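QUALITY CONTROL LOG
STEP: pairwise intake check
CHECKER ROLE: data steward
CRITERIA: each record must contain a sequence immediately followed by its structure tokens, with no blank fields

ENTRY 1 OF 2
RESULT FIELD BELOW
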Amino acid sequence: METIGIIVAMPQESDAVLRLIGQRARTDFGKHRYYRFRISGRKCWLLTSGMGIQRAAEATRILIDAASPQLLVSVGIAGAVNADLEIGDVVASRDTCLFEDGNAGPFQPLARLSEAAWQAAEKALQPSGKGLYPGTAVTTHGAQPIQQLLEHMENPVLEMETAGIISAAAEKSIPVISLRAISDGPRAPIPFNLEQMMDENDNLRTGVIIQTILGHPRMLPQLVRMGHNSRLAADNAALTLLAALSQSGPVINP
């Protein structure tokens, strides 16, 4: 029986998946918590890694040791670089790269959804009026002013984990899918500089965030909107995941 490892960064993203899952079992392994369930007979392990490349890579290695998956999925929310994508649209990336110090690193191919999985995911998104698009997962250490550097890519999305996941997966030659739903972008930007709100270990600096909000009370409506958009994006990423994995042969390896 095929085993699939699913890695998300935040509880909001794992909660969105679990809301769609029926019976499941919880397992605590060290500092990590796993949820085990089945989709169309496949064993699935869901892990919340925490934000950032290092946490994602560490959690992926632990998941590989615990479950020996044949496929890994990086799923969750992301930021759009270009204005073409709407909040709630989902990008199934064809490749990924690490962006740091103003440069995009080598592109690494990702596994792709099969035609049946793609069609099933599109159908699942139809009630929300959102679409499924191919693109590129650009892993960063927080928001960076990089639009002009990446605008030549097909639907680039900014996130903080896929490069770490694929680095760990490559050690065992395990294919990786990336499914990311848009929570922010040019149409609905994050109302603060995310990079300034994080330390060198990709931890949110809660005190700085609170001070920023207290100093800019007009930011509150934008934060409410951001919360709504993040919920929609997490829900659509989860819908896409379950629809795709419910198909036979959902993946085309790179």
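ENTRY 2 OF 2
RESULT FIELD BELOW
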Amino acid sequence: MIRNALLLLLFPGLILLCSCKGMNRPGRNSSATGMEAEYMPADSQAVQSAVDLYGFLKRMTGKGTMIGHQDALAYGMGWKGDEFRTDINDVCGDFPAVFGWDLGHIGDSVNIDGVPFDRMRQWAIEVHLRGGINTCSWHVRNLVTGTNAWDITPCVAAVLPGGDRHAAFLEKLDLVAAFFQSLRTSDGEPVPVIFRPWHEMSGGWFWWGTNSCTPEEYKSLFRFTEDYLRNTKKIHNLLYAYSTDAVKTAAEYMAFYPGDDYIDILGFDDYGGMKDRESSSRTVALLDILDSIATVRSKPFAMTETGLETIPDSTWFTGVVLPVIKADASTRNTCWVLFWRNGRPDHFYAPFPGHPSAPDFIKFREDEATWFLSDIHNLYKSPEE
């Protein structure tokens, strides 16, 4: 397959290196093991699997766009199960390449969307073993009011050092650290995760958003979160993504940016710009902005959330999404596009068997621009497996 051949080009010497017993980590080569600073993540102590994943993300730039889905394994339309199943695979015979999870309500038995944390852990490990990529967002409850992430009562200052909710925030961060620390294979290898905390800050609907804190407060929140996980809790299997809502200018995009030393991947969430062919021109323009920023900073970027709720346009995937990710040079660096979750009959973003968009999604999967799990399986598997 052409796409698998491209992977070999992305990782010169992969077959030779992986043929040695035990050498089955992703893309192990001189660049990915730290001999070239270009392929090192922001965390200088990142574990090898995270370094290799980052190397892959940078090397795949311009080669294709991975397709992701939120909570893909936890449930679908009409089913909940423990098997490795997704609605996307039921439709097209292939799994997403990127699997999204959320740590909201960590400390409870289930997350904000009813996914048991114990099962999330098992699924995330299996995703890694099958060659997929895990990414986690975090809809954190407002620690001032005790309600939810959408309560915009100011909270950032209260959770930072010196604030009266700082101790409560540390308790949450300890739980997050413990979860990430627990993501290990049976032989003890840490599972890399792209962590995307404090997302959509350019919107006003979260307590860490533009209506509830200043850009400097936000930067302090992001830096403290990462410093605590890295330096205090010694969590080094994470890549960090900065993910705004849709914006119109580079200045808007960078307003809350915590710094290159803290960010590995640039991203944005965009639902409004992906409604139809006409509105998608705004998304292409935003991707062009990110392309310029990412090129200067030598960082990959992605559309970290998107979707069209209930997919009323049966040709949306090939008619809207595909042209956006193929739009000339403006999207040459787009690593992945993640569709939101299939939560219920009035709230789903990926096709399922019998939905009118299913045939179109099969065409979407067959296009060389879209990469699914089978297209990147060599990332984590040696030729012997």
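INTAKE CHECK: passed for both entries
DESCRIPTIVE NOTE, ENTRY 2: The longest helix spans residues 215-232.
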